[in-house]
Design a protein that fits this description.
The chain has 347 residues and is an alpha/beta fold. The protein has 17 helices and eight strands. It has a five-stranded parallel β-sheet. A three-stranded parallel β-sheet has the order 1-2-3. The structure holds 2-acetamido-2-deoxy-beta-D-glucopyranose (NAG) (3 copies). One 2-acetamido-2-deoxy-beta-D-glucopyranose (NAG) binds next to α6.
């Protein structure tokens, strides 16, 4: 008995020191040098609570790579921070061109997700196409709704989704701030700072992104575009925890060829970005295909070191095998994005 109890104590430090597999991260933001000041203002809460966040957002070279080294990230897929999708296409173009240059100069450490002007659907489709076909981007990461709170389940977005299917690249639906008409529902008998948080990273924009995935399903998008690959961050934007109920209740109204449970397994990928707890992971490991679970950090809003510490905790926890840990760390991303953890593009 005594000996058995000693074994875990003996193993723990060994696993703790064991080198982690290479890490690829997919929800890692920057701010273009042409970002309008009004948009930068949206980050006032982060500026207050995350040390050095503006410097990190605005850097696409030394500071970023040094931070990647600290968190043992071998390849970072860079994307623009939330909010740019409400501005005309020239802003997205300038931002994507900047990432293109940074990727080229990064010696294989960076890859790019396109940003797109989702408030202008035709321009968004054209810019997505340009970024993938001309700039070598590995997908898109876009604001979860347009500037008026409109979602992307309408006909006007079909050309945008068509690009994703044609080039077989994923679209990462990324939370964004409530639009003007959405904001009041987060206000109440409390401080505006609380309202701001409840509408954004403290709850609202996650629930809103989960809702968007359900709206896309309800609109029949996954019948029209059966090969579509959608990524939802933050441990799946609440969907895994509601999966059983969504599956059961959507069967009452859905006329889709594949039910939600099947679409979830086949068309949705999720990342760990910015949620550092094993509790949600236990649920996800039980109801989400292991090859659809991807490590990500949400740099610079959280640090690569915090992410690395959590990956080590996951590794030690016994919840995943070595092979599953490697899949989450980089192999799933290599397959989904056709990249190599060391930055080599697979054609
Ligand atoms: C985009 O175009 C507008 C209107 O012409 C201009 O004011 C703005 O500076 C441009 N922004 C960028 C990043 O090119
Ligand atoms: C969804 O469809 C699959 C495959 O047809 C089936 O096995 C499963 O029971 C369905 N799930 C729900 C919740 O209806
Ligand atoms: C990266 O990995 C690929 C496949 O494993 C290998 O062919 C390539 O030589 C590696 N490149 C570098 C720069 O290490």
């Amino acid at each position: 008995m005594k000996l058995l109890r000693l074994i875990p104590l003996f193993i723990l430090p060994v696993l703790g020191k064991k080198k982690m597999p290479p890490l690829i991260t997919l929800e890692e933001h920057y701010l273009s040098r042409d970002t309008p000041d009004a948009m930068k203002g949206l980050f006032k809460e982060q500026v207050q609570f995350v040390p050095g966040v503006m410097d990190k957002l605005e850097d696409l070279s030394c500071l970023r790579i040094a931070d990647m080294d600290k968190g043992e990230v071998t390849l970072q897929v860079v994307s623009h921070a939330a909010g740019l999708g409400s501005y005309p296409v020239n802003y997205s173009r300038a931002a994507n061109d900047q990432v293109y240059e940074a990727v080229k100069n990064s010696k294989g450490r960076l890859a790019g997700f396109a940003t797109a002007p989702m408030s202008y659907p035709a321009d968004a489709a054209a810019e997505f196409r340009r970024a993938v076909s001309k700039l070598g981007f590995v997908g898109a990461l876009v604001d979860n709704h347009d500037g008026n709170g409109g979602y992307f389940d309408g006909e006007e977005y079909d050309a945008f989704w068509a690009v994703a299917e044609e080039f077989d690249v994923p679209v990462y639906l990324h939370p964004t701030w409530p639009s003007e008409d959405m904001a009041p529902r987060f206000e109440g008998n409390f401080d505006p700072i609380a309202s701001n948080s409840l509408g954004s990273s403290g709850w609202g924009w996650h629930a809103d992104t989960g809702l968007h995935v359900l709206r896309l399903f309800a609109s029949g998008l996954f019948d029209r575009r059966p090969k579509l690959k959608i990524i939802a961050g933050h441990m799946g934007e609440m969907i895994p925890f509601m999966l059983q109920r969504i599956g059961k209740i959507s069967a009452r109204w859905s006329t889709a060829q594949r039910n939600f449970t099947t679409v979830y397994r086949e068309n949705i990928w999720i990342t760990t970005s910015g949620v550092w707890s094993l509790d949600p992971m236990r649920c996800i490991l039980a109801n989400t295909p292991i090859d659809h679970i991807l490590y990500s950090v949400d740099y610079p809003f959280t640090s690569n070191e915090v992410g690395l510490a959590w990956m080590k905790e996951l590794h030690r926890s016994g919840l995943v095998t070595q092979e599953e840990c490697e899949a989450i760390a980089y192999k799933n991303a290599e397959k989904l994005l056709r990249v190599k953890a060391n930055g080599t593009r697979v054609q």
